[in-house]
Amino acid sequence: MSRRHDRSAVTRPASSRRAGRRDFAELVRAAEPGADDLPLTHITDAYRFRAVVEHGELATSDCEVFGEPLLYLFYGRPAYRVTGSGTGTGLDAYWPICFVLRSDVAAKRIFPFDTGAFEKQLFADYCHKDMIREDFELEADPATPQRLVRLFWEGARSYFENRDFSEFAPEPFAFEAKSYNELIRSKANAAFDERHSAIELQLDVPLPLKDNLIAVIMPADFATPDILRHFDALGALVLPFDTVARHSAANMVGQIYDICRDLYAGNKGKVRYW
Predict the structure, then answer these.
(1) I want to staple 153 with a disulfide (CB 3.0 to 4.6 A). Which of 132, 158, 195, 260 is the partner?
(2) Cβ contacts of residue 245 below 8 Å, gap of 6+?
(3) How far is the C-alpha of 37 from the C-alpha of 20, rounded, in Å?
């Protein structure tokens, strides 16, 4: 029987949780940063996008996992899935829009994976039943993602593609590192996707678009002249993509990955990361 059935599906309140172990964080902190630093991403849907444009910032929202308002970003990968993205819908209000952002923001927390999936026990087959998410919490430093990538992957592009892992072998008692190493290399049929190894950053304050925004990736229908002028004034690229009626928003994330890959390779101008 899978261990995920042995664990409670109810998240324990923060007050009742033990302090996290620091073994994994110390291991990552001791690693050298990689040569290539990727940007951050945030995906929202078109309905919420209007408020972002109106207020000029990515706002926090109430998080049920941590019990506080947070803004979630991912390192390099446009890995987030918007609510309602799993099925086809004719509502363009659900279409995903991706913000590509500078990486030197001040995060409150950094984790090596999607914490929501961890709390749902989707990674239970790779973790001891007594492990808690805080055992995997990393140092909230802008260089931390580069250190983690260098430790477990061959490079920044390998991390982005979620393949070509390093030859790093954790020490015998480095159980958190062993769990993560096995998790990211898993080829088994599982309930999780590439967010199992997407580096998560949490902010507890809104993030202004001005001076932080690199590009916006959006369905071509929304790239109106007003939107183009708005983001041009912020010095950001607008990178549109075509859509198919009733395609799920999750399917569109694949197109966003392709555009990010081209952007990072320097094919869109403005920036280059590999």
Answers:
(1) 158
(2) 90
(3) 27
Q: Check: CB of residue 26 under 8 Å from CB of residue 170.
A: no
Distance set, CA 76 to CA 33, 55, 205, 211 (Å): 15, 25, 21, 18
Measured between alpha carbons, how far is 127 from 215 in angstroms, rounded to an integer? 37
Q: Give the pLDDT score at 40.
A: 98
Contacts of 100 (CB under 8 A, 6+ apart): 39, 40, 41, 213, 214, 215, 216, 217, 260, 263
The amino acid present at 140, given as its one-letter code, is A
The share of the chain scoring above pLDDT 90, in percent, equals: 80
Task: List, for the chain, all residue ranges whose pLDDT scores fall below the cut of 50.
Answer: 1-10, 85
**Cα angle, residue 179 at apex, residues 203 and 109 outer, rounded to 5°:** 10
List C-alpha distances in Å: 147 to 111, 153, 156, 269, 272: 12, 10, 10, 27, 20
